[in-house]
Amino acid sequence: MLDLTMQAIQASLDGLAARQRITAQNLANSETPGYLAQTVSFEDSLSNAIGDGHVSGTEIATGTTGDPVNINGNNVSVDNETLSMVDTGLRYQLATESMNNKFRILHDSMRQDL
Amino acid sequence: MTSPMFPVFDIAGSALTTHRIWMNAIADNIANVNTVKSMDQPAYQERFIIAQELPSRSGDPVGVGGGVAPVAVELGDAEGRVVYDPQNPLADKNGLVRRPNMDLGDQMTNLILAQRAYQLNLAVVDRARESYQQALNINGR
Questions:
Q1: Alpha-carbon distance A8 to B138, whole Å?
Q2: Distance, CA of A12 to chain centre
Q3: Which residue of A85, B3, B97, B140 lies most exposed, with the fewest beta carbons within 10 A?
Q4: Is residue B24 predicted with pLDDT exceeding 70?
Q5: So where are chain B's domains?
Q6: What is each CA distance from A34 to A26, A29, A38, A61, A65, in whole angstroms?
Q7: Which segments of B32-103 does DSSP mark as H helices, in order?
Q8: Tell me, what DSSP letter sits at residue B53?
Q9: DSSP per residue, B4-40
Q10: Residues of chain A under the 70 pLDDT cut
């Protein structure tokens, strides 16, 4: 039932949700000795997949930030993680808003009392 | 972070990182304010963070710049303040030792500056978040 736009938005929501989870995990481990901050990337993969006309090939990849580590071997930067939380939250909101729009259009097209 | 959909976060975020590192350096300076060295060693050298503005990020049409980044740590005076302290086990035959040549008043002033700048940048993030949020609500019905 979902068209390509909706599938793309859904894939984007999946990727953003994964990023929120990783950010939460990073913040939870901000004092764990030896813990390396993780990142999530999916945008390039999603963009390529949309270009190919099917979003099922979107890969949500995790990596590390490569930031310098503290004395205890941890490299979580609490300010960057907090910013990522806000940034990702806004992006998520934008994506859900787009999805709402698609459903509104669908809904309007089914109305008979226009 | 990813492509700058919300560029203020990148710019203010770079300042948060820079001022956090500056605060680390000040903490190190204050931690070592009483570190005594023998005369044949350099004194504790004050840490200075050298910051530099970043060039505009891609997609920035007018060139407002891209924030700030710490690029180097410069070290202060290695001579230190040579003081007479014959009781100190590190003292040489003339009773002299090296203490760091730092002013604690300067460090506390810098600490306040760094902390205020950090708070200001957090305030920028907060205001930008509100603005972006308003933009996202344009479509509401």
A1: 22
A2: 6
A3: B140
A4: yes
A5: 7-136
A6: 12, 10, 13, 21, 14
A7: none
A8: E
A9: -SSHHHHHHHHHHHHHHHHHHHHHHHHHTTT--B-TT
A10: 1, 114
AA letter at B79: E
**Mean pLDDT within B15-29:** 95
Query: pLDDT value at position B2?
Result: 45
Dist CA B69 CA B35 (whole Å): 29
Residues of chain B contacting A, Cβ within 8 Å? 1-3, 5-6, 9, 12-13, 16-17, 20, 125, 129, 132-133, 136, 139
Best probe of the A interface among B1, B2, B10, B141, by most A CBs < 10 A, is B2
**Closest approach of chain B CAs to the CA of A112, in angstroms?**
20
Domain ranges of chain A: 4-110
For tokens 């793309």, name the residue: A8
Let me know how many helices (H) and strands (E) chain B has, helices first: 2, 4
CA distance B135 to A43: 22
Looking at B59-103, list the stretches that DSSP marks H as alpha helix, in order from N- to C-terminal side: none
pLDDT tens, position by position, B95-110: 999 999 999 999 999 9
Q: Quote helix, strand, coil % in chain A, to nearest 5.
A: 60, 5, 30
What is the pTM (predicted TM-score) of this model?
0.82
Q: How many CB atoms lie within 10 A of CB A62?
A: 12
